[in-house]
């Protein structure tokens, strides 16, 4: 027996909105049409789904279970469609996602093979589902993933640095510590993943002015002397504007200013992604 998705969607809508009138309004159908559909669903299943009185209709215990299972079926069907479409899309180019932005910035500069990347950063909790749903071929993270279906490979380290106005005393130092940067003001890109927690924890007295786009950050920095963060992955001269010449790049020497980066991928996809990953590792800037 096959029950149409349309009938299941109407049952779920009735459960969600509580009345035929509200459910019909949300579904853009008339109330009599929805009533007939609910009767049809009962007939096809051969069970009673609704308690009917003169002025009210409600779900029976069986109806409650049917609505719950119907919602699960519809969600699984949507996941099925997305997974197949995502899998098909993988055959054309690699999809790369990350939990921090810098590896993707570096990758755009050095990659010899076409790839696509999501503009949104993932959280650590989203990595496994993202890979299993074929949304990404590779996910770059700051932690290894331990799973029977997923492998992790060390890519390299990202080392945090600061661009300091050339007239600042800090610019004369070969390196600085987080403590040296207390009470300073920074322009910071908002989407930096774990780095946001690291800098706020280690420089609690600093003033962080977050920007939603890298373009806006560079524009503002060109007319101010605020400190700007860079790393070994984002100091490529072709990426930022000439305004950087007015500042001195100084490494941060604290241990917390370096994080490990890993490439995560589905085991079955290893032959496809490994050449890309090996090239990425070979070109990873060490300092």
Automatic annotation (TrEMBL):
Single Gene Ontology MF annotation: DNA-binding transcription factor activity
Domain HTH lysR-type: 3-60
Xref: Pfam families: HTH_1 (PF00126), LysR_substrate (PF03466)
Top-level taxon: Bacteria
InterPro entries the record matches: LysR_HTH_N, LysR_subst-bd, WH-like_DNA-bd_sf, WH_DNA-bd_sf
Keywords of the record: DNA-binding, Transcription, Transcription regulation
Protein family per UniProt: Belongs to the LysR transcriptional regulatory family.
Designated name of the protein: LysR family transcriptional regulator
Organism: Lactobacillus jensenii
UniProt lineage: Bacteria, Bacillati, Bacillota, Bacilli, Lactobacillales
